């Protein structure tokens, strides 16, 4: 059974810092790994999708990497801004779609 | 922990038929539920936000007359795919947001895989 964990559970940083969010999964038999942003009371917003055959994806200030063999993915946010404050979830898509518990990020002005 | 169920887990139907998918919060009440779908090799995308007792809010590009959402109680939201066509074949997931004031955490159902022949 796939299990997805995320570290840290919460993170508070000053504006401008680069930061890394971590996602781990137990079953490497995945089709893809996805990162989402969740704002309070809102649905998820898709950020990046990494297919199982890919190593990384980039979108603007976001870069996500995938290492299937070690069961890890990282989301790198460059030059963080207060508007980046949200909860970030990763999800492993295989036979089932399993979400991590999320990392709650606060970027302080 | 909070549990969200979906029924059915898989459904195969003929083109032109309607399919209803249920999303239930089993041990908590949810004023807001979300419906997502994922096409093969694409990201999970938000379709609509379902609010108990009021009309759903649909994302741009999602046809409200095709994807009927009913959130009749605090524990049940249904998504009906009307006159389904092969291009509607997808993986549909719901999530539930517990009552306001408790937490912003969303709890996800296991998903429903729809195949339209």
What report would you give on this structure?
The complex is a heterodimer of chains A (109) and B (117). Chain A is built from no helices and eleven strands. With 109 residues, chain A is mainly β. In chain A, the strands form two sheets. In chain A, strands 2, 4, 5, 9, 10 and 11 form a six-stranded mixed β-sheet that branches. In chain A, strands 1-3-8-7-6 form a five-stranded antiparallel β-sheet, with no helix packed on it. Chain B is mainly beta. Helix content of chain B is 0%, strand content 53%. Chain B has strands at 4-7, 10-13, 19-25, 30-38, 45-51, 57-58, 67-73, 76-81, 90-98, 107-108, 112-116. In chain B, strands 2, 4, 5, 6, 9, 10 and 11 form a seven-stranded mixed β-sheet that branches. Chain B has a four-stranded antiparallel β-sheet with strand order 1-3-8-7, with no helix packed on it. In chain B, strand 4 and strand 5 (45-51) form a beta hairpin. Classes of the chains: A mainly beta (109), B mainly beta (117). Chain A binds chain B through residues 31-32, 34, 36, 38, 40-46, 49, 51, 87, 91, 93, 96-97, 99, 102, and chain B through 32, 34, 36, 38, 41-46, 49, 59, 91, 93, 95, 97, 100, 104-106, 108, 110-111.
């Amino acid at each position: 059974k796939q299990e997805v964990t995320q570290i840290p559970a919460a993170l508070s940083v000053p504006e401008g810092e680069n930061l890394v969010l971590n996602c781990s999964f137990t079953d490497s038999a995945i089709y893809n790994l996805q990162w989402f942003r969740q704002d309070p009371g809102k649905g998820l917003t898709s950020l990046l999708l990494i297919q199982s055959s890919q190593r990384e994806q980039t979108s603007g200030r976001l870069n996500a990497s995938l290492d299937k063999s070690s069961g890890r993915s990282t989301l790198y946010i460059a030059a963080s801004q207060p508007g980046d404050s949200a909860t970030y979830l990763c999800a492993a898509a295989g036979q089932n779609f399993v979400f991590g518990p999320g990392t709650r990020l606060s970027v302080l002005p | 922990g909070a549990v969200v169920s979906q029924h059915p887990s898989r459904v195969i139907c003929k083109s032109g038929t309607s399919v209803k998918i249920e999303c239930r919060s089993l041990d908590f009440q949810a004023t807001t539920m979300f419906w997502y779908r994922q096409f093969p090799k694409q990201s999970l995308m938000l379709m609509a936000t379902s609010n108990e007792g009021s009309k759903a809010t649909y994302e741009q590009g999602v046809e409200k007359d095709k994807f009927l959402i009913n959130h009749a109680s605090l524990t049940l939201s249904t998504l009906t795919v009307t006159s389904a066509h092969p291009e509607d074949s997808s993986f549909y997931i719901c999530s539930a947001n517990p009552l306001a004031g408790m937490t912003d955490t969303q709890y996800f159902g296991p998903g429903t895989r729809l195949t339209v022949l």
